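Hey, I'm writing a tutorial for new members on how sequence and structure tokens pair up, and I'd like a real worked example in the thread rather than a made-up one. If someone can provide the structure for the chain below, I'll link this post from the tutorial.
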Amino acid sequence: MGASQIEAAKDIARRKDIPYQTLIRSWIAEAIRREQGEKA
């Protein structure tokens, strides 16, 4: 990830009042679920 992407994630996480690492993990988990669903 580029620095600007990390900063954007931090801004979004701040608005949601959650740690940015948690936000990124949730995005990754959602992407995995979508990918697995498309292959099923």
